[in-house]
């Protein structure tokens, strides 16, 4: 008996093609500029879908406190742990979108080490050249928005006894069926009755519109869904969706401001 | 006509460069942009000054050599024209004209307006061909190709590899060039078989050569002397997604190029 016969597998490790290593696939396809751009496009469109859903849900402000408070209660309690799955997913998508987009942008800046003395452009839209700037503003706004309404850390409403402020999160509302829930309606009215807060929201919505007016049509092209004939359609979808998000969100702010929606 | 030219002068790849101002007169509107620089160079030679180095060859808009950024636009202000096909009547008498080389990491500067575009050759070498034994000429019509497909291939095949797309792109992306080559071969049955390998390898080489990514700004399309459409970039991405799916299912991915 030779020494090797003691080995568990005398023929050596099982053969595997290098192609069976999933990291090869990931490095190749998600490591390239095209693959990463596709990631930015997919995550961008997911964020866009969220923005549409979020806006439509918030339109319940127009049907009164009962409606919006019930909806908010449904999201936070009735769907149980799914809210955390949704939040984690959204967070992941958000982080992926901005980290891949910013990393691509850094590489693109390195791709032109010496710039032109005379800068000019033939047909580029301003929004297509400022995606990073508008994206960063939108990102900062999202953080601000969470601090403001989700964590109630930015602003309070004057307490009934005139002493100090009450935290947004302590506001309560009694639904028709007797359940006591968080008063989202009052919180939103309090927020947008404050001039500087409304101004921040209006400006941010403008910037989001600019980001999406290029982002959506660009994503559709990135995903290979557009040819020369459908380019005008992709543009229409882009401006249309961005416009719907803008109008819906701004309507809520303005309605509170001019007093259509009040306590 | 008279012009004030501001031209990038740089004696060598690692030397310091700068914009230098020259005045030219006795220019007629029918002169091409290159002929106008010829006039300037003749004078510079007489004055004992090193003439402006620039690439040119065919001077009829088919070779893609005459790379120049003119007033911030690749190949100047006319759509669908190379610099050699740009005429001085496109400018107003007395204009200031800024002339600069292509600026991209993938196009290292050699001298004045001349850049090294061999990165494009390496992109082609990594997949811009069809692996068939040529053999004898096939019978006519033995391989039917729909008219729409051949038109599409012909549109893409117009690319002369001038590099204007990458020079004009704010991201310094050569995606229009890449997509024209990939789209041209993929539209034909002879090239289709290797399309998913080709697109993976050529994209990998494009990135390795230091070009940026495409965000559909669309400047390349306006700069392209052959008016290649960005729809080919969309098509390239479609092929890339197809290649990724095929590699995932069949386990074919072997790294880029
Ligand atoms: C609600 C939030 C956001 C939405 C809905 C959104 C949506 C989009 C969409 C649809 C695109 C197009 C992708 C493409 O060009 O193919 C895009 C691109 C981009 N986004 Fe956003 N985005 C959001 C937030 C952000 C944030 C927070 C940042 C950065 C900090 C950002 C940075 C960018 C950049 C840099 C691009 C350009 C892509 C590139 O250069 O490859 N976005 N975004
Ligand atoms: S796509 Fe157009 S601009 Fe780009 S290299 Fe080809 S001919 Fe030149
Ligand atoms: S010199 Fe050949 S295209 Fe201009």
UniProtKB/TrEMBL annotation, chain A:
Keywords: Membrane, Transmembrane, Transmembrane helix. The chain crosses the membrane at residues 38-59, 79-102, 131-151, 196-216, 236-260. The keyword Cytoplasm does not apply. One of its GO terms (cellular component) is membrane. InterPro entries: Cytochrome_b-558, SQR/QFR_C/D. This is Succinate:quinone oxidoreductase.
UniProtKB/TrEMBL annotation, chain B:
Residues 18-103 form the 2Fe-2S ferredoxin-type domain. Residues 150-180 form the 4Fe-4S ferredoxin-type domain. Pfam families: Fer2_3, Fer4_8. GO terms for molecular function: 2 iron, 2 sulfur cluster binding; electron transfer activity; metal ion binding. InterPro entries: 2Fe-2S_ferredoxin-like_sf, 2Fe-2S_ferredoxin-type, 2Fe2S_fd_BS, 4Fe4S_Fe-S-bd, 4Fe4S_Fe_S_CS, Beta-grasp_dom_sf, Helical_ferredxn, SDH/FRD_Iron-Sulfur. PROSITE patterns: 2FE2S_FER_1, 2FE2S_FER_2, 4FE4S_FER_1, 4FE4S_FER_2. PANTHER family: SUCCINATE DEHYDROGENASE (PTHR11921:SF41), SUCCINATE DEHYDROGENASE IRON-SULFUR PROTEIN (PTHR11921). NCBIfam families: PRK07570.1. Belongs to the succinate dehydrogenase/fumarate reductase iron-sulfur protein family. This is Succinate dehydrogenase/fumarate reductase iron-sulfur subunit. It comes from Limnoglobus roseus.
